[in-house]
Amino acid sequence: MLAYTLLILLAGGLQVLAARVKVTWDVGYLNISRDGSTTWRAIGANGQLPIPPIYVTQGDILELTAINHLDKPVSLHAHGLFQRNSAYYDGAGFTTECGIPPGSQFTYIIETRDQSGTYWVHSHYGTEGIDGLRTALVILDQDASLLDEYDEDVLLALEDWGQEPNDNLLERLKTLSLVGMPPNHPSVLINGINANLSQPIRFTPGRRYRLRVISMSFTYWFKVRLPGHTMQ
Fold first, then answer.
1. pLDDT tens digits for 132-177?
2. CA 53 to CA 91: how far, in whole Å?
Protein backbone atom coordinates (compact mmCIF):
# COMPACT_ATOMS: atom_id res chain seq x y z
CA MET A 1 0.00 0.00 0.00
CA LEU A 2 1.74 3.13 -1.22
CA ALA A 3 0.61 6.75 -1.23
CA TYR A 4 2.29 10.05 -1.95
CA THR A 5 1.59 13.46 -0.43
CA LEU A 6 3.44 16.36 -2.03
CA LEU A 7 4.92 19.05 0.16
CA ILE A 8 6.10 22.47 -1.01
CA LEU A 9 9.11 23.57 1.02
CA LEU A 10 10.69 27.01 0.85
CA ALA A 11 14.46 26.96 1.24
CA GLY A 12 16.64 29.99 0.63
CA GLY A 13 13.93 31.61 -1.48
CA LEU A 14 13.77 28.56 -3.80
CA GLN A 15 10.85 26.17 -4.09
CA VAL A 16 11.87 22.60 -3.38
CA LEU A 17 9.35 19.89 -4.18
CA ALA A 18 9.49 16.96 -1.77
CA ALA A 19 7.19 14.03 -1.20
CA ARG A 20 5.82 12.36 1.88
CA VAL A 21 5.92 8.71 0.83
CA LYS A 22 3.59 6.46 2.81
CA VAL A 23 4.17 2.71 2.86
CA THR A 24 2.09 0.28 4.92
CA TRP A 25 3.22 -3.25 5.73
CA ASP A 26 0.71 -5.79 7.06
CA VAL A 27 3.32 -8.06 8.62
CA GLY A 28 2.29 -11.71 8.75
CA TYR A 29 3.29 -15.33 8.28
CA LEU A 30 3.46 -17.02 4.88
CA ASN A 31 4.01 -20.67 3.99
CA ILE A 32 6.25 -20.31 0.98
CA SER A 33 9.10 -21.86 -0.96
CA ARG A 34 11.67 -19.29 -2.07
CA ASP A 35 14.49 -21.63 -3.02
CA GLY A 36 12.45 -23.99 -5.19
CA SER A 37 12.88 -26.93 -2.82
CA THR A 38 11.57 -26.37 0.72
CA THR A 39 8.40 -24.78 2.04
CA TRP A 40 8.23 -23.33 5.53
CA ARG A 41 6.58 -20.55 7.53
CA ALA A 42 8.32 -17.31 6.60
CA ILE A 43 7.43 -13.68 7.32
CA GLY A 44 6.30 -11.22 4.67
CA ALA A 45 4.32 -8.01 4.21
CA ASN A 46 0.92 -7.58 2.57
CA GLY A 47 0.90 -11.30 1.76
CA GLN A 48 4.08 -10.95 -0.33
CA LEU A 49 7.60 -12.33 -0.41
CA PRO A 50 9.84 -10.87 -1.59
CA ILE A 51 8.68 -7.53 -0.23
CA PRO A 52 8.85 -4.93 -3.03
CA PRO A 53 11.75 -2.45 -2.75
CA ILE A 54 11.01 1.03 -1.45
CA TYR A 55 12.05 3.95 -3.69
CA VAL A 56 12.16 7.56 -2.52
CA THR A 57 14.04 10.67 -3.68
CA GLN A 58 16.55 12.42 -1.44
CA GLY A 59 14.69 14.96 0.66
CA ASP A 60 11.49 12.91 0.82
CA ILE A 61 10.00 11.83 4.12
CA LEU A 62 9.22 8.11 4.31
CA GLU A 63 6.35 7.08 6.57
CA LEU A 64 6.62 3.31 7.04
CA THR A 65 3.72 1.84 9.00
CA ALA A 66 4.01 -1.72 10.32
CA ILE A 67 0.83 -3.55 11.38
CA ASN A 68 1.86 -6.57 13.41
CA HIS A 69 -0.09 -9.77 12.70
CA LEU A 70 2.59 -12.01 14.21
CA ASP A 71 2.49 -13.66 17.63
CA LYS A 72 5.55 -11.71 18.79
CA PRO A 73 6.81 -8.10 18.65
CA VAL A 74 8.11 -6.50 15.45
CA SER A 75 10.58 -3.67 14.93
CA LEU A 76 11.85 -2.19 11.65
CA HIS A 77 15.34 -0.76 11.16
CA ALA A 78 16.41 1.38 8.17
CA HIS A 79 19.94 0.02 7.81
CA GLY A 80 22.56 2.67 7.11
CA LEU A 81 20.48 5.77 7.74
CA PHE A 82 21.85 8.32 10.21
CA GLN A 83 18.64 9.01 12.18
CA ARG A 84 20.07 12.26 13.50
CA ASN A 85 17.92 13.47 16.43
CA SER A 86 15.45 10.67 15.68
CA ALA A 87 16.88 7.57 17.35
CA TYR A 88 13.36 6.72 18.51
CA TYR A 89 12.62 5.78 14.87
CA ASP A 90 15.76 3.64 14.48
CA GLY A 91 13.84 0.42 15.07
CA ALA A 92 16.48 -1.47 17.05
CA GLY A 93 14.42 -3.84 19.17
CA PHE A 94 15.08 -3.56 22.93
CA THR A 95 17.66 -0.84 22.24
CA THR A 96 15.72 2.17 20.98
CA GLU A 97 12.27 0.61 21.34
CA CYS A 98 10.46 -2.37 22.86
CA GLY A 99 8.97 -3.47 19.57
CA ILE A 100 5.44 -3.31 18.19
CA PRO A 101 3.23 -5.71 20.18
CA PRO A 102 1.09 -8.29 18.35
CA GLY A 103 -2.12 -6.72 17.08
CA SER A 104 -0.67 -3.20 17.21
CA GLN A 105 0.87 -0.83 14.69
CA PHE A 106 3.49 1.90 14.56
CA THR A 107 4.66 4.41 11.96
CA TYR A 108 8.36 5.11 11.47
CA ILE A 109 9.15 8.61 10.17
CA ILE A 110 12.37 8.43 8.13
CA GLU A 111 13.89 11.63 6.74
CA THR A 112 16.27 11.39 3.78
CA ARG A 113 17.51 14.95 3.28
CA ASP A 114 21.14 14.09 4.19
CA GLN A 115 21.61 10.83 2.29
CA SER A 116 21.16 9.10 -1.04
CA GLY A 117 22.13 5.65 -2.23
CA THR A 118 21.16 2.03 -1.63
CA TYR A 119 20.10 0.81 1.81
CA TRP A 120 17.69 -1.74 3.24
CA VAL A 121 14.93 -2.10 5.79
CA HIS A 122 14.72 -5.18 8.00
CA SER A 123 13.20 -6.41 11.21
CA HIS A 124 15.49 -5.90 14.18
CA TYR A 125 13.68 -8.35 16.43
CA GLY A 126 14.84 -11.96 16.80
CA THR A 127 15.10 -13.86 13.52
CA GLU A 128 12.28 -12.07 11.71
CA GLY A 129 14.63 -10.38 9.24
CA ILE A 130 16.27 -13.57 8.02
CA ASP A 131 12.82 -15.18 7.91
CA GLY A 132 11.91 -12.69 5.17
CA LEU A 133 11.02 -9.35 6.73
CA ARG A 134 13.55 -7.28 4.75
CA THR A 135 13.72 -5.31 1.53
CA ALA A 136 15.86 -2.76 -0.29
CA LEU A 137 15.47 0.97 0.32
CA VAL A 138 16.71 3.11 -2.59
CA ILE A 139 17.12 6.85 -2.05
CA LEU A 140 17.47 8.39 -5.50
CA ASP A 141 19.85 11.29 -5.98
CA GLN A 142 18.20 14.70 -5.72
CA ASP A 143 20.66 16.05 -8.29
CA ALA A 144 18.94 15.20 -11.57
CA SER A 145 22.16 15.83 -13.51
CA LEU A 146 23.53 12.55 -12.12
CA LEU A 147 20.95 10.71 -14.20
CA ASP A 148 22.91 11.72 -17.28
CA GLU A 149 25.80 9.50 -16.15
CA TYR A 150 23.93 6.25 -16.83
CA ASP A 151 21.10 4.92 -18.98
CA GLU A 152 19.57 2.32 -16.68
CA ASP A 153 19.39 1.67 -12.94
CA VAL A 154 19.62 -2.03 -11.93
CA LEU A 155 19.01 -3.27 -8.38
CA LEU A 156 20.56 -6.57 -7.20
CA ALA A 157 19.39 -7.42 -3.68
CA LEU A 158 21.19 -10.48 -2.29
CA GLU A 159 19.74 -12.61 0.52
CA ASP A 160 20.73 -15.76 2.38
CA TRP A 161 17.93 -18.31 2.76
CA GLY A 162 17.60 -21.47 4.83
CA GLN A 163 15.39 -24.52 4.89
CA GLU A 164 13.44 -23.94 8.10
CA PRO A 165 12.29 -21.12 10.38
CA ASN A 166 15.34 -19.57 11.98
CA ASP A 167 13.90 -19.72 15.48
CA ASN A 168 14.56 -23.46 15.25
CA LEU A 169 18.15 -22.87 14.14
CA LEU A 170 18.72 -20.30 16.88
CA GLU A 171 17.66 -22.74 19.57
CA ARG A 172 20.15 -25.34 18.28
CA LEU A 173 22.93 -22.78 18.06
CA LYS A 174 22.47 -21.97 21.74
CA THR A 175 23.60 -25.49 22.57
CA LEU A 176 26.44 -25.82 20.05
CA SER A 177 29.87 -24.32 19.48
CA LEU A 178 29.86 -21.90 16.53
CA VAL A 179 33.43 -22.89 15.61
CA GLY A 180 33.46 -24.98 12.44
CA MET A 181 29.69 -24.88 12.02
CA PRO A 182 28.60 -25.93 8.50
CA PRO A 183 26.47 -23.51 6.43
CA ASN A 184 22.86 -23.43 7.52
CA HIS A 185 21.53 -21.14 4.79
CA PRO A 186 22.48 -22.96 1.58
CA SER A 187 20.48 -20.81 -0.84
CA VAL A 188 21.27 -17.39 -2.24
CA LEU A 189 18.39 -15.24 -3.45
CA ILE A 190 18.77 -12.48 -6.03
CA ASN A 191 15.86 -10.04 -5.93
CA GLY A 192 13.93 -12.68 -4.00
CA ILE A 193 14.53 -15.58 -6.40
CA ASN A 194 16.86 -18.56 -6.05
CA ALA A 195 20.07 -17.46 -7.78
CA ASN A 196 20.18 -20.74 -9.76
CA LEU A 197 16.67 -20.11 -11.09
CA SER A 198 16.82 -16.36 -11.72
CA GLN A 199 16.92 -14.96 -15.24
CA PRO A 200 20.19 -13.40 -16.44
CA ILE A 201 20.47 -9.65 -16.77
CA ARG A 202 21.27 -8.77 -20.34
CA PHE A 203 23.35 -5.67 -20.94
CA THR A 204 23.30 -3.83 -24.26
CA PRO A 205 26.72 -2.75 -25.56
CA GLY A 206 27.13 1.01 -25.52
CA ARG A 207 24.59 1.61 -22.76
CA ARG A 208 25.71 2.65 -19.27
CA TYR A 209 24.30 0.86 -16.25
CA ARG A 210 24.26 1.76 -12.59
CA LEU A 211 24.33 -1.43 -10.53
CA ARG A 212 22.93 -1.15 -7.02
CA VAL A 213 24.29 -4.26 -5.30
CA ILE A 214 23.23 -4.70 -1.70
CA SER A 215 23.80 -7.56 0.71
CA MET A 216 20.73 -8.16 2.85
CA SER A 217 22.40 -11.17 4.44
CA PHE A 218 22.38 -12.07 8.11
CA THR A 219 24.98 -14.87 8.03
CA TYR A 220 27.26 -14.71 4.97
CA TRP A 221 29.40 -12.44 2.82
CA PHE A 222 28.81 -12.47 -0.92
CA LYS A 223 31.46 -12.21 -3.62
CA VAL A 224 30.13 -10.40 -6.68
CA ARG A 225 31.80 -10.26 -10.07
CA LEU A 226 30.91 -9.66 -13.70
CA PRO A 227 32.81 -12.05 -16.00
CA GLY A 228 34.94 -10.14 -18.46
CA HIS A 229 34.63 -6.83 -16.60
CA THR A 230 36.66 -4.99 -13.99
CA MET A 231 34.59 -3.63 -11.12
CA GLN A 232 35.62 -0.42 -9.39
1. 999 999 999 888 787 788 999 999 999 998 887 787 777 776 776 6
2. 18
> Measured between alpha carbons, how far apart are the two ends of the chain, in Å?
37
* Stated pTM of the model: 0.84
Cα gap 30→183, rounded to integer Å: 24
C-alpha to C-alpha distance for 59 and 40, rounded to whole angstroms? 39
Q: Residues of the chain whose pLDDT is less than 70?
A: 1-17, 173, 176-184, 232
Distance from chain centroid for Cα 188: 15
CA distance 139 to 59: 9
Angle CA(199)–CA(192)–CA(111) in degrees, nearest 5? 125
> Cis peptide before 205, with omega less than 30 degrees from 0?
no
CA distance 88 to 75: 11
- Among 114, 159, 104, smallest CA distance to 133 is for 159
Residue 13 Ramachandran class (φ > 0 left, ψ -120 to 50 alpha, else beta): left
Question: Residue 142 contacts by C-beta under 8 Å, 6 or more apart in sequence?
Answer: 57, 58, 59, 116
E runs forming strands in 46-116: 54-57, 61-68, 76-79, 105-111
How far is 52 from 137, CA to CA, in rounded Å? 9
